[in-house]
Amino acid sequence: MSNWTDKNNKIDVSYNKTNRFICVEHPALVQNHEKALSTIGGVKNLEKIYSDPIKRLPLQWRPEDIYCKATYGDRTNVSNLLMKVTRRRRKSDGHEEYKVEILGRVYTTYKFQAMVDYQYLPMKTNKDGSHESIYEEVRMNKLVPRKEYMNADVPLFIPPVMFARVDRPCEFHYKQEMKHRPDYINPDTGRPPNLIGTIRQRRSIFTIFVNFGDKLPAGPIPEAKKRTQGDFVDPKLEKMLIELFEEKPLYLKVEMEDKTGIRSDKLKIFLPAMCFYWLDGPWRGQWNKFGFDPTKEVSAKIYQTIDFRVRQIRPGQVDIKAKRDILKLSQWNQVYRNQKHNVTISLKSLEDNAKDEKREKTVDKELYYKFRQDTVPPHRMIYYPVCYVEVDEVQELLHSNDGKVNIDLSL
User: Fold this and answer.
1) Which parts of 370-410 fold into alpha helices (H)?
2) How many CA atoms lie within 13 A of 373 on its CB side?
3) Which among 58, 135, 291, 401 could disulfide-bond with 70, CB atoms 3.0 to 4.6 Å apart, if both were Cys?
4) C-alpha dihedral sign at 373, 375, 381, 382
5) Counting runs of H as helices and runs of E as strands, what totals does the chain give?
6) Cα radius of gyration (the chain)
7) Mean pLDDT score of the chain, rounded to an integer?
8) Which part of the chain is CATH 3.30.200.160?
């Protein structure tokens, strides 16, 4: 049975399902396949990139130029067929016939959707406005002594580390100018024209930050007090914090969240109106109630902050996670996808009541500001008030000079 048919007829085509191909959508009108293949580093480089699912395929328009900035193709999963169509025409009457072959399936395609015109060419501008290439002068084609390399008389050529934050074009929608409140001050007003700023006014948190040795503030900023009197502020939360500061004058924020149940985004509304924040010193990282000066009170020694840290994990040690995840830098040649999460199944008895669950949750939260000898800290770096370090030797040392210390209030 012949595979040739007219263009208006249907034909059944068989194909080999075992053949798999990789598709590269080259962002150019390809006339020379060898040159097109060299722009992506050849077949070996394509195989290397394909073996790593997170790698992006680099394409260099000038492969021989070491200063050529590559554009990157994103790897996408597709379900396509590679088809070969052959046409033949009879010279006698011009009748055309077609032959269709399915060569295999395509599961992976590299698509170049980024901008390709980001280039910084090694050239200099002459006085007459013409441009002259300095590539051979700035390129190192052999190893030379450091002194000779640094003292060489070559034109200045410093390519940028990063061309843009993103390498894909984004849509821009025109809209009306944003309306602001009457007291709004545009931060771009009076800004030098060579600086690019934002039109959003800087957000004010009204928190007073104090360094050890500075004069302590007597009260909050008026705007901080005014903020707690808004229409959407719950006065019950403020009352809870007032009662909490009557128990003791200094708190870590995590302790306040645990004892009151108030979320962090709610606490930042009330705290600037009730207390100030220590940036350093013995009470570093704690919120200090207005009107209480710990530098003049002997009883404040029990609230001093201990900066507890654990070194990196070593073989045989218990794994303690970091307080904050290490930020992954977004590299041009990689793409980060959502990682699969392991599902954990709790084997806790279903007969436990809600009170036990609530109590267990409270105990776990206390570990963020209480140190216990028989419990592994939740993070490698954590602050503890010394009064919450449940170690007998530490507490004995802390209270060893009770009643023996006097503070000169005249200083």
Assistant:
1) 392-398
2) 5
3) 58
4) negative
5) 10, 15
6) 34
7) 83
8) 4-111
- Band of residue 50 on the pLDDT scale cut at 50, 70, 90: very high
Indicate the helix (H) or strand (E) that contains 283: none
Question: What CATH number labels 4-111?
Answer: 3.30.200.160
Q: Write the pLDDT tens digit of every residue in 358-411.
A: 444 445 788 899 999 888 888 888 999 999 999 999 999 999 888 877 766 555
Question: For 62-76, 102-116, 186-200, 211-225, which range has the lowest pLDDT when averaged over its residues?
Answer: 186-200
Identify which of 327, 326, 289, 323 has the alpha carbon closest to the alpha carbon of residue 309. 323
Tens digit of each residue's pLDDT (9 = 90 or more) over 67-122:
888 889 999 999 999 999 898 888 888 888 888 889 999 999 999 988 777 788 89
Any idea what the Cα angle at residue 52 is, between residues 49 and 56, rounded to 5°?
Answer: 50
Which element (helix H / strand E) includes 123? strand 123-125
Q: Are strands 57-59 and 131-133 parallel, antiparallel or unpaired?
A: unpaired
pLDDT score for 95:
85
Measured in residues, the chain has a length of 411
CA 355 to chain centre: 38
Contact (Cβ atoms closer than 8 angstroms) between residue 80 and residue 23: yes
Which pTM value belongs to this model? 0.50
**Six token digits for residue 227:** 């903020």
Q: CA dist 36 to 26, 71, 118, 403, Å?
A: 8, 14, 19, 85
